[in-house]
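Researcher: First entry.
Model:
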Amino acid sequence: MEAINFSSMELNAQFRLLQSQLREVWQAIDVLDNSDYDILVIPSLSLDQRELQKIEGFLHYEERLLFSLIRMQNPRTRVIYVTSQPLSQIAIDYYLQLLPRIPFSHARDRLLLFSTYDASATALTQKILNRPRLIERIRTSLRTNKTYMICYNSTPLERELSVRLDVPLLALDPDLLYWGTKSGSRQIFAECGVPYPDGSELHKNTQDLAAAAAQLWERQPTLQRMVVKLNEGFSGEGNALLDLRLIQDKAPGSASHNERVAAIHKSFADLTFEAKGETWDNFSGRIPELGAIVEAFIEGDIKRSPSVQGRITPTGEVEILSTHDQILGGPSGQIYLGCRFPADESYRLTLQQLGLKIGQNLAEKGALERFGVDFIAVRQDDIAGVPQWDIQAIEINLRKGGTTHPLMTLKFLTNGRYDLSTGLFYSQHGCAKYYIATDNLQKDRYKGLLPTDLMDIIAEQRLHFDTSTE
């Protein structure tokens, strides 16, 4: 079948028309009814590919959306899962046999797998768009008017694929991606009245960025460090630290504004980068394209990095799904390494309230599906010594994030529910569940292990999940 060519305007109009159908098919994730639908899963990391290259093993991230198989608890639901390289059948079988009250063979017959057989660094969605015959095979496998598409993050690539397949995309309209950038996040925090660190607007050259940093220092003369952030950085890899203590002789009151700007601009070459192997030449080369901001680095003896995860439904409702305390690493503690669920009880309900406020602002702008908000919490005890937490919002992620698949895997395993009144997750037996999840776990001794080896280790060490005991 010959591909239909759309103008940009026609493609956008058709995309929005398709998305409007989602209101009719929407069903809450907690309701596993007998609706008869196909779910097309496109786990593409359609992010800036040069920034993505900083994440080791990012090709394996396509497997993160395997939690979507939870939907197959509905015996009438089919899942169509597309990947760059074929998935291990052993891994697929492992997931399917965990489905409660569903025969393995019945679930396997309702799962269709497609692959581009392409391990290049190109985004999966682009690989699919480059293969018209694959698009046609996927299209013919779907049931007309009974399918919706989900993805890791939404970009113009996913929008085009949605239109070419004639399938609505349950994700953000790419025209709204700005609200998930560093500068867009700060604008929303200001609109919502949510506390956030002092910082700058978006700048596209290093001279303006240095001037903005000088102005920030002048507003906060006691500031010790600043963070320089690419506007579209990922997992903290687009961040760098500027240590003002090294140019203290140019501090406010000790030098002129112009001298301060010049000193900061020169110091950019000595930034401490979060990403391995990053250099100022490469980093600064991205600024004209992506833009960058400077932001006050929040100091504190007892400091945590909690987050809240939410969802905006096609009907415009905002749902809070979870809170986490993030586990961070890297040179200055800005790289995401994992998370603990739930967030500390001292502030988890506050996170929910702030997340709801931000989610409602996003919903008013037309945002859809997943969003996450990262915070910094610094303990500041009151006069009586009672712990108090100063919480400031850092950024919004308008996509599935590092805390999405751990929570959804828990839901997959227990079919439980999140309780807003406590911020806890309860299994069907009423037991509160907690977890620590790693992200991008790597060890040299794992090299050379095959999926069969992993299953042997799981069996020998009795690590397999037991649904009877949870």
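Researcher: Second entry.
Model:
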Amino acid sequence: MFNLMLATSMMREAASITTQISGEVIPSDKPGFLAMAVREPVGVILGIAPWNAPIILGVRAVATALACGNSVILKASEICPRTHGLIIEALEAAGFPDGTVNVVTNAPEDAGDVVGALIDHPAVKRINFTGSTEVGRIIAKRAAEHLKPCLLELGGKAPFLVLEDADLDEAVKAAAFGAYMNQGQICMSTERIIVVDAVADAFAEKLAAKVKSMATGDPREGNTPLGAVVDQKTVSKVNALIDDAVGHGANLLAGGKADTVLMPATLVDGVTPEMKLYRDESFGPVVAMIRAKDEADAIRIANDSEYGLSAAVFTRDAARGLKVARQIKSGICHVNSPTVQDEAQMPFGGVGASGYGKFGGKAGIDSFTELRWITVASEPGHYPI
């Protein structure tokens, strides 16, 4: 359901910005000169979308680009090519001209060659990619060979700060949602819960009880908020992170390892920098709880990561929350709400290893248009030669 609702909102927002692609007249120092900054379509945009929220992220890869007057190629994920293909079919059925919207699919073993060929093609002018940081680096390097701009929305290790004056019950609800929604397979997923010592024990007890109450199974059959992770490789990765953390002295408060893709919600307390779970993106239903001495220490820990996509801060003092949010190095930060949230009109993107560039609203217009300087002279020119 969340896939469909946000995707339709993105289409509506894209339609609304077609009348917001504006330029400006800039005063010139030259007499008789009319100078303008004008935004124009780029040409062909390559959008590379992932599997984990296929409708939302497939739509996002093409919607604003189309609204800005470009043609698009959606490179479908190998895991959900039919879903991504349906997005393009819907756009064609809506009346987009032939060749304006296109989809490319491939076998998993051919992904590198297909993406490379698309990036190399002279008709493709810009690229947007949502996916892992590892693959994002490869795409950025390939595009840089042709001096083609990229919009990269990559991995994350979102911190969730709980200060001593936080409403712990509200923080527990938001942390559980942010950590385990879609089995933790979201770039914004809460990966690090950073709690100041003064409330750490109380918060841990409340969150552990919440996590233990979250069943795993078929979400279509009753109250089972967690479904299956994408594949057995994810199971092995999450199990290894749990083993490493516990082996280095962390405490398993809820959940644990699994043999199948039906993995339980897992909470690990006492995570420290020498543990892989402290730094590595899990992209699964496991979250690290890290204890901080005070607010300043919590901010330091939050920034002790190469990633910088989303973050959250919980405090009863909104002014304090805003002050803390301004000190966290992330493209997105929410005070008293989860790390996982998106709205079509908001500037969405990260910093550091989480990528660069922005989707959404007016910020998205900049990503999918070319800004040009155009002048018109109304008087004869005078030149030194």
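Model: Note on the second entry: Residues 92 and 179 are 37 Å apart (CA to CA).
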